[in-house]
Amino acid sequence: QEASTCLVFSKDLSFLSTGPAVSELVVIGEVGQDITVPCYYSVQNRRDITSMCWGRESCPSSKCSQPIIWTDGWRVTEQHSSRYQLKGDLQKGDVTLTIVNAREADSGIYCCRVELPGWFNDQLSNHKVVVKKARITTSSPHTHTSEQTSAPGSTRESSSTVTRTWPSVSASAAPQTASAPCSGSSDCLDVTANLQ
Questions:
Q1: Most buried of the four, 11, 70, 152, 189, by CB within 10 Å?
Q2: Which residue ranges does the record assign to the Ig-like domain (predicted)?
Q3: Biggest alpha carbon distance in the chain?
Q4: Residue 119 has what pLDDT?
């Protein structure tokens, strides 16, 4: 699979050689996680700080298609949703996109376009974002653990853990008895019969 990805990558670069070079990166995340889509440009001094945008399609010939966030280089000037954030140091050229609490619908191509002076000088990068459903893990013997912790900044400091264990029961398993004492032998037989 890596070989085919490299082949597509080189075909895209040769096809677009008459315009600005476009790089491509694949980012994989899970539903409910924050996903980081990297993008940087070089800032040697304050004059290098420039505007940029993120869009929801491949980079067009100018600007961003379906723009989701813009910056003038110093601060975010437009934001389609609070789920799209630039958490890096903008003035150092870190325009990495964070998709907060990702959904499957966030999968697709994202364009990072840094607007550099001159014709066809913009720095373009397309990123394929793949958001997968969270993996469900099972444990044996059927143990479920849940933790409840207070939110950061709240006054509650305690946390509690609840663990429940359900024994596996099969036709060949030995009879199981109730943990409470039986008042008579007939009660114990009824419990054993029910468990089988």
A1: 70
A2: 20-137
A3: 93
A4: 87
Query: Taking the mean position of all CA atoms in its chain, how far away is CA 196?
Result: 45
- The sign of the dihedral angle between the CA atoms of 15, 18, 21, 22 is negative
Q: Which amino acid is at 107?
A: S
* CATH number of the domain enclosing 122: 2.60.40.10
Distance, first Cα to last Cα, the chain: 50
Mean pLDDT per block of 10 residues along the chain (196 residues) reads 32 38 85 97 96 97 95 96 97 98 97 94 96 73 38 39 38 41 45 40
pLDDT at residue 138, as a whole number: 55
Q: How many domains does the chain have?
A: 1
- The predicted pLDDT at position 37 comes to 98
d(CA 50, CA 93): 9
